[in-house]
Structures are given as C-alpha cells and as structure tokens.
Amino acid sequence: MFYLRSFITFALFSVLSTAEDQSQYEIILLSKFLDENGIPVQISDSDTYWMNNQITATNGDKVDVKLYYESLCPDCIKFDTEQFSTTVQKLNQYVNFHTYPYGNAKTIYKNGEIIFECQHGPPECYGNKLHACAIDHLQNITAAIVFNSCMMGGEGGGSNDAAADRCAAEFGIDSMPIKACAKGDRGTQLLEYYGEESKKANFSYVPYILINGKVNDGSNFMNDVCAAFAVPPPPCVQYTVLQAWHFGEETLKMDIKYVPYVMLAGSSDMQDQATVYLMATICQMCAVNMSNKYTLISFFVIILLFICFAIICLALNTNALSKSIELQGMKDSDNFNNFGEKYEVVLKVYYESLCPASVEFYTTQLLPTVEVLGSLDNMKVITIPYGNAWTTHKDGVVEFECQHGPSECYGNKLHACAIDHLKNITAAVVVTSCMMGGGYDESLNAAADRCAVEFGIDSTPIKACAKGDRGTDLLEYYGEESKKADFSYVPYILINGKRSNRSNFTRNICAEFAVAPPPCEGPDFLDG
After folding, report:
1. pLDDT greater than 60 at residue 297
2. Which of 20, 139, 163, 482 could be stapled to 158 by a disulfide with Cβ–Cβ 3.0 to 4.6 Å?
3. pTM for this structure?
C-alpha cells in the first residue's frame, strides 16, 4: 500500500503542475483536506535526493552558525535545551557550529587582574567558564554543546559543579579537568577570549544567533538552518520542501519547487483512508478544471499509468514481504519490542561502532555485564549498532551516512552481521567488543579476522554479509528501530524501557530483578 499511496499523491501533484493558473485553488483544497483529517505530511529521503538532482547550482560549503549566550540566562537556557542542542546533534556533519558563552558580561582589568561582571552575577561567570572549559577540554563541538546543554538543564539553571558532575556521569567523561580549568587561569583566559569575540559581534541581547552571518531570532532554528543550504542534507528533509502549512482564510504558505511524492504519516488505517480521500480530491480538482483540456488529458493519462503501476506494486510488495520474512529470524520470534511477558529484564543498547563513548561503555561495562548475566533465562539483551546514522534511498539504492564516516557504517554492518550470524547475543557481544578494542590503527576487516581467530569462529560469512545486501538490510532495520527510540546521543541505554545512566549501569540492571541473581549480590560485580 505504501507504493500505491505514494503514486496517488505523486499523481495529485502532477495534476497540480499541469494547471498553474488554478494551482492556488487546488493547493487550498489539498490543505483543507489534510487539515480536516489531521494527516501530517512527511517527505521521504528518496524524494529529497530526487529533488536535489534538479538543483543545478550546488554549494559544498558548510553552513556557519554562531551562538552568543549566557549560561544562566533563562531565554538562553530555553533555546539551548529545546532547539539548539537537538539541531547540533542532527546537523553537526553539515554545519560549522561556534558557541560563545559570555553574553552581556564585562571584562575588567584591575591591578593586573582580569575580573568579570555577568548579567546574572558571579555564579554565571563561573558557569560561563565551565562552558568555555568544556569546549576546550572535549575538543569536539558536538560533545561540548550536548554536555553544556545538559548542565543548563539542571535544577536552578545548573551550570555549576554539581551539574558538571551529573552530566559527566551521564556521558561517561571526567568533570575534574573541566572544573579545574574553570577555577584556574585557563578558564579566565578562555572567557576573556570569548568576551573579545562577543564584542566584535556587537549585540545587545542573548541568545544572539547568526546563520551565515545573518541575525536569526531562533523561533524556527532548525528550519532556518536547513533553509541556508543550497542542497539540503538528509536531516533537513522535513523542513526544506514544505516550508510551512497555514490553514487560515484559504491561504497556504508553501515552497513547492518540484513534483515529489509524499508519504502520509500515521496508522495504516489513516493512510488507507487518506488514499481514498486523495483520489476523490483529484477527481474534484479535475471537475473544477474541466475547461482546461490539458488538466483533463493529464488526469486520464495518470489513471492509465496508475493501473500499470498497481501491477508493478504487487510484485514489489511480494518482494518486500519476502524480505520481511527473511529478516524475521534476526528480529527474533519474540518480537523485537515486546518481551515483557517472557523476560524479567530487557536491556537495549543503541550505539555506534566507532563512537569513543560507545567503545568505552561497550568494552568496559556492557561486555562484563553480558558475560555474567547474558545467559540468564529471564534476561534479554539487545544491541542495536546504528546510533545517529542516517538511512537514505537514492535511485533504488539504500545508502547510510554515519557520525564517524563510511568506516563506521561498515563497522556497524560488521556488528549487525555478527549478531545475525552467531545467533547468540553473548557470543556476539564478546566478538563485537573484541573488534571495537583494536584501536584506530587496525582495519575493520583485520579486527574481524583477529577476533574470529581468538574465539574460534569463521569471519568470512560475517564480512561477506557486511559487504552484501544482507548487511544493508540489517543496518536499515536497525536504523528503523533506532528511529523509534528517538534518542540524540549514544550509547543510549534502556532497561525495561527506562533510560539508564552509564554510571550505575549494572546496579540498575540488578534492581529490576524481583530476586537478584547471585552476581548482583557481589560488590566486585556492581559498578563502583
């Protein structure tokens, strides 16, 4: 039905494109229908790439975004935690982000000392230093922004030592050097620098946002960043084609530059109902435009194409069903997301094969825990090697973009294929953990071979899977499952559906058992 719905909607937009003189009226009809039936519209990745191919002028340069802010400013906290951090995590591969934690502070030089006066008092000056030191220490703007956003989300505005400790524990980093920096000369030097940069920007309020040098009010930040691209990247899919729906007084603000097909989001029942309504809408539009012979001819041609397309869809759906049945073995007969009746504890770990935080957690915490508890009959362990990657469809080919480049995509496939091939989660975690421990100097295939020899298995089918269609199918599936979890960082850990911090990982698992198994009673096994 997906193909049929897609084609019907494609046909609708094709009819619209042949009657430019009536397009405003027709788009209003469509907007009314969608509004009245509560049906959201989502552009598929394949549409985006098709549309991008229509753009003749491309720009490979990244968009430049600068944020000037204060650590305790309420408006800054709201913007950072609700919009900025999320956007950074989605677009960090495509945007140069710069943050300046200074705001409307003042730098004063007195008796050879540097003193700062901040809008919200000395605690904010120290909070600004913590933010500056996190940027300096982590050496990764995405990690620093996520960490600083976490500090801003603490009780009373956060951005203090307690918030730094809490967020460091959550993300598995050491807060000591960040706090030491903020209390020492380095923190003063960094804040002085950010003061100089802020003075150059010459603003009078915060948050002060620049996108490619233009002031932005932050009300639709993700949308505005996406609009700055000549060719929008995959994360911008839902923002760049249909810019905004407005359903008042028969007006609709849209930016339809191409003829895409769309996927109707929601339940299958809603989608099927929407298909019927959309087909009726096409007929209604054609009735309105009977005087336009080109629209009428176009409609009948589309109907003929639709009949042919329906026949093709039957074959495609048959292939999709076949593929679904093939993947069912990997999904486990228990159902990937419904283990509650069979298992007392269900652990899910979403991760990336080359993410430093994922590697550290996987090899130092997950591995020993699974080795001890993974074989329990009442515990289910599920690992999902995908993380913050993106799945795109281009010219019938499934492609992936990963946080740490193509090597990580292949590493994720190796992990997915190891899980699929070994048919035992404990063995799969042991082998994949071994592969993660090889370091950056070792190739992924070499790591697979080394670990296969170490544990007496054959790496050939795992590598063949990762290089073939099976690996693509598996990673695509893991991408779908990761999207459902709706996380923004990895490793992302769920214990019985509840998010768990890394700092109390084994304790949180043990706490879920009605009767704790023997390993949970030993202090050597528990964290800390």
Report:
1. yes
2. 163
3. 0.49
